[in-house]
Specification:
single chain; mainly alpha; two-stranded antiparallel ribbon; 13 helices; 2 strands
Length: about 325
């Protein structure tokens, strides 16, 4: 445990890729130094991540993510006084939908602006939103976190996507609401805060709503791209929850991870066709830069996980076999 934590701490100083590289160092020490048996990385989880991130990056290329950000901004401005509750839930819903916090990152400046205009301390809404959006990734059917969880649980215990989400989604939303309540009255009201009053009097602070903004015009394929992606998400939820709808061969049913891969790649192609965006633009989105770091992390986490899990399963099977033999 000390070796794992130390390697994660060292790699964490260098960002996402550093975490994966640090995990590789930890695995090397555990395997080569202590003789622990490693397992193969989860190829299933990696394929799901590649397919989902590809679809999201193409959605970004056609302007779909920017369109979602604008929709969220309009909703936030309708209820500015309730920003502390609306912002975390709304941002989390978009994160659940896309499986990435990219939309959340784009909304943070908007949340700060709306809160300031409503005379609400921005850190209340922002602190709750940052936490909620980050945790929402673990409850999203489209995220890399859920892909890794599904690949492992489906392989070892036959757990379906619906079973995972039936626990993850209610737990997440309850936690997000409690988080919002915990910061609802944190600190003095903005207009009563001495430091804020001093900055306004000194001319160091200007409300951001005074800036003139250009009117947003959605890209031609943005709305259609979002609709196609949404249909894909719904199909994944339905087929991942009701596995009896899937075809089977020789008594073995089509696996949920493979269904996710097929649907997401199909959605990606349809978004390409509808969006009519040049192919070189699909490779330049910021969302597409995440998969490599995620895949490295999956390799690290999978090996460390299996070091203990395979041994646990092996001991459990041996114990059951021994009990059966004794009973006979």
């Amino acid at each position: 445990l000390f070796i794992v934590l130390a390697c994660i701490g060292i790699g964490g100083k260098y960002g996402g890729m550093g975490l994966g590289a640090g995990g590789g160092l930890g695995v090397a020490i555990l395997v080569l130094g202590f003789g622990l048996k490693p397992s193969s990385p989860s190829i299933t989880a990696m394929l799901i991540i590649i397919c989902v991130i590809s679809a999201v990056s193409i959605l970004q290329a056609v302007g779909g993510l920017d369109y979602l950000v604008r929709v969220a901004e309009r909703i936030l401005r309708k209820k500015p006084q309730a920003i502390t509750f609306v912002a975390p839930i709304l941002t989390s819903v978009f994160t659940l939908f896309c499986g990435t916090t990219y939309v959340a990152f784009s909304l943070y400046p908007v949340i700060a602006e709306v809160a300031a205009e409503a005379k609400v301390r921005p850190e209340r809404a922002l602190s709750a939103t940052v936490i909620a959006a980050s945790v929402a990734v673990a409850a999203s059917p489209m995220s890399a976190a859920t892909a890794g969880m599904l690949a492992i649980l489906h392989e070892y215990a036959g757990i379906t996507l619906g079973q995972i989400l039936s626990i993850a989604l209610p737990s997440f939303f309850m936690a997000a609401i409690v988080t919002s309540f915990s910061v609802y009255k944190r600190g003095k009201e903005l207009e009563d805060d001495p430091e804020f009053q001093r900055r306004v009097a000194a001319g160091e602070y200007e409300f951001m709503h005074t800036e003139q903004k250009k009117e947003y015009v959605a890209a031609p394929g943005a709305r259609k791209g979002v609709a196609i992606f949404a249909i894909g998400v719904v199909l994944v939820l339905i087929l991942g929850s009701f596995t009896e709808l899937l075809p089977s061969w020789d008594g073995k049913r089509l696996s949920t991870p493979m269904v996710i891969q097929m649907i997401m790649l199909t959605a990606a192609l349809l978004i390409m066709i509808v969006g009519k965006v040049p192919s070189n633009k699909f490779n330049s989105g910021s969302v597409l830069m995440n998969p490599l770091m995620i895949l490295v992390k999956i390799i690290k986490l999978r090996w460390i996980h299996i070091l203990s899990y395979d041994q646990m399963v092996s001991r459990k099977i041996n114990n059951q076999t021994t009990r059966c033999a004794n009973s006979i």
